[in-house]
Amino acid sequence: MLSMKLEKPLFYKNKFALRFELGPTDISVWADSKRENINEEYFRVASNRAASIYRSAFSQNDEIKVCYQILSDGRQKIKKSDYFFKLFCKLSGKPIVFSEHRDIYRDDLEYKRYCIKRVTISDVYTQDLNEDEVILALINSDFGCRGPSLHGQLFLINCTKGLTLHIYDDRGMDIVADSKKPLESIYHEQNSSLLDYDRDYMDRLFALT
């Protein structure tokens, strides 16, 4: 799966893809009209949806690779002091590789030195992760006031099932694969959480024989 370009939005860059709505549209992010207080019910629903979808895609003994990356102008780097390493501190004994990638989808970059800085942790298994803690950090990515938040892009690659999961913020999640088969059961089990905006595409995809 690492042969694919890991860059959001995954859904629009891959033929075999699912896009889910996490944040409920019928509940406001804010508890007041001044947008000063967070509505915790909104985040509770978003987190529970994300956890349910994750558990449809990842089984107990699946082998995983964890990929975290940032867009850099050549100067910004992923540092050992970043929250990413605190979040995944239990994986400190696993193989870790730092890499740089210039095959970026965007064609409007101002400087040729722009690249993706990435760190990949391999030889990981589902039981090594605290998925609730990871989900919370991703749901909080635009709302650091709620607690720990993870910026940048995090991809969980399920090597066993051949799929990749990406929570882009509190609003949604993408899951993609190289073929339709790894996504079929997820499509059916989590159908009610599919993003309506892209539902027609997903329905046509899984209606094909």
Give me the secondary-structure category.
alpha+beta
- Indicate the percent of residues in helices: 25-40%
The number of helical runs is 6
Unreliable sequence segments: none
| Count of domain modules | 1
**What is the approximate shape?**
globular
Number of strands: 7
Mean pLDDT: 90
Order of helices and strands: HEHEHEEHEEEHH
Task: Give a written overview of the molecule.
The protein has 209 residues and is an alpha+beta fold. The protein has one domain (10-207). 26% of the residues lie in helices and 25% in strands. It has six helices and seven strands; from the N terminus they run αβαβαββαβββαα. It has helices at residues 10-13, 40-57, 83-87, 131-139, 181-189, 199-207, and strands at 16-21, 63-72, 96-101, 115-125, 153-158, 163-169, 172-177. Strands 1-7-6-5-2-4-3 form a seven-stranded antiparallel sheet. A hairpin with a 4-residue loop joins strand 5 (153-158) and strand 6. The longest helix has 18 residues, at 40-57. The protein is globular and about 40 Å long. It starts with 9 loop residues before the first helix and ends with a helix. The model has no long low-confidence stretch (mean pLDDT 90).
